[in-house]
Amino acid sequence: MNRPSRADAGRGDATWRDEIPPPVVRPHGLGDWLRVLRRGTGAVLVLLLGVLLILPLRGIERLFHGRRRPWSGPHVQMVCRLTLACMGIGWQRRGRPMQGPGAVVANHSSWLDILVLNAAMPVFFVSKAEVATWPGINILTRVTDTHFVVRDPRLAQDQAREFAERIGAGHRLLFFPEGTSTDGRRLLPFKPTLFQGFLDPALPDGLAIQPVSAVYQAPAGADTRFYGWWGDMDLGPHLLAVLAARRQGRVTVVLHDPIPVAGESRKTLAALCEDAVRRGIA
Description:
- The chain has 7 helices and 8 strands, in the order H-H-E-E-H-E-H-E-H-E-E-H-E-E-H.
- The protein has helices at 30-65, 72-87, 113-120, 137-143, 156-168, 235-244, 266-281, and strands at residues 90-94, 102-106, 124-128, 147-149, 173-175, 208-217, 250-255, 259-260.
């Protein structure tokens, strides 16, 4: 998960951040706190049980499959679906996960993307290294084997080699080409530099990229940006506001047709994937 720094506010493609974020309504009254307790307790218990089960599962899986994740991947997928159900958030998937070697790119709107996109298909997020220190989220990222990257040109070759090894092991690495999270109402331009990694000759033949659109629908009567989490918004208050909502909204994950990498440049790949994701959220 990637969030903008304060310096982003001055960029030409980030002027939308000057908008005032929707007010984060804190729980008030017994009813709100009972919903927080009921939904939060259920979600935490499911996540804890999922973590406890995946540790021995991964140990056995490693003996038979090495770095491949044919068992623990679907396990994480089911845990995330159950967690969303405990939170009361509606969820559905359209389209089918790709077959064969490849990666996934998606729009980025919220901390909920971790649950929403893992629920759609077994994936491994690619995120900046700082996320590994975020309380709570760092547990999810480590259990789901998130691929952390450091923005340092001196480490580019080593990180490209790690990327190729994971793709070769059958991992579906998921990238956010916008480079930051948004308010969920728009799609920022995809950064072509990210797609350079897909052109590495060390990657398997037949590599493809599957664009994915995560479309959030706010609860009835709420601000359309209700689930969006960006800029300087604090995680705790936003999490409580989501759990306390009297009525929850829903999210639809649209899996688009995979785009073969062969014959494309980083710019054409970025354009093709951006167009697919944009059509999905439109």
